[in-house]
Amino acid sequence: MSDLIVWTYDWVPEGPRGFVRDLRLRWACEEAGLAYAVRTVPFKDRGPEHFAHQPFGQVPFLSDGDLELFESGACLLHLARKGEKLMPRDPAGEAQTLQWLVAALNSVEMVSVPWWFLEVRGAEQNHLTGWLESRLGHMENVLAEREWLAADRFTVADLLMADALRITRVRSFGERPATEAYVTRITDRPAFKKAHADQMAHFAKAD
């Protein structure tokens, strides 16, 4: 049995399926060839044991033997450091990967998630729209000039950035051909397809 355990919910409604963030960890493990197991915590009744592992009652969290981590970005960095498939070991390549991984969380997702929340709640005015447009415009300029974000190859930074950009409402926001080509290319990878299919099957089985 693998020491790596990806923890997710036992069930979620249909809407978030395919986007629950344990998919990021599954995908990273598939890309890196790391054996892992998936275990669950209740979606509806989040008790003290869950909060002991994830203080906000969210998923995913990761177990690696006696080591435990929460937050998908931290978990991805831990997995990336297990080899070189997701992050190069030379100082320049590692620094580039780290900066773009943080950018996905801090410069893109920090705006896109609250924007999306206001959109699905039907806000009459979404005051974050201009901010999102600016951030996505900057990403479009970057992706128009390069195939990968760091080290001239696929890294965990691409995994996380593509996952942030593939959210349906974000993906359909404006005309951004370079971004769309990037997201399509990254999510066409066999590791993503397997991780996505496995998550969808996992939640469907619990219906």
TrEMBL record:
Lineage, highest ranks first: Bacteria, Pseudomonadati, Pseudomonadota, Alphaproteobacteria, Hyphomicrobiales
Give the SUPFAM superfamilies listed for this entry.
Answer: GST C-terminal domain-like (SSF47616), Thioredoxin-like (SSF52833)
**Domain called GST C-terminal: residue spans:** 90-207
InterPro entries named among the record's database cross-references: Glutathione-S-Trfase_C-like, Glutathione-S-Trfase_C_sf, Glutathione_S-Trfase, Glutathione_S-Trfase_N, GST_C, Thioredoxin-like_sf
Protein name, please? Glutathione S-transferase family protein
Q: Which PANTHER family match?
A: GLUTATHIONE S-TRANSFERASE GSTA, GLUTATHIONE S-TRANSFERASE-RELATED
Give every GST N-terminal domain span. Answer: 9-87
Q: Could you say which protein family the record assigns here? A: Belongs to the GST superfamily.
